[in-house]
Amino acid sequence: MDKILVDTNIVLDLLAKREEFLTEAQEIFTLSDKKKVKLHVSSLTFANTHYILSQSYKSDNSRKILRKFKVLVEVLPMDDKIIDLSLASDFKDFEDAIQYYTAIENDLDLILTRNLKDFKLSKIPVLTAKDYMQL
Hints:
alpha/beta
């Protein structure tokens, strides 16, 4: 069973119902619901997703959405080591560095994102949801 870190953009595709990317996100999270993959998100993803959802929904509704979503993923901690690695990395985007080192430190198999170019330095596979579903 693949152990996958799901980047914030794919989480938001699902929860904010971003029409252009919704179907692919639904397929990924359906795999988790059916116990065919193990999906993980960083704790940073949860915080960022709540913030973005609360721009469109009341805070209580954002939390309700996240409570339902949480059954599909394991939330991974962000610790000193991940922050230190991210700060010292060559990643241009600090948030992407945190996502990457969260995956590395938790021995995950791959990262799913829509921003492949942001993970050029990755030593583990990085795929879009669409590409993963085609495998």
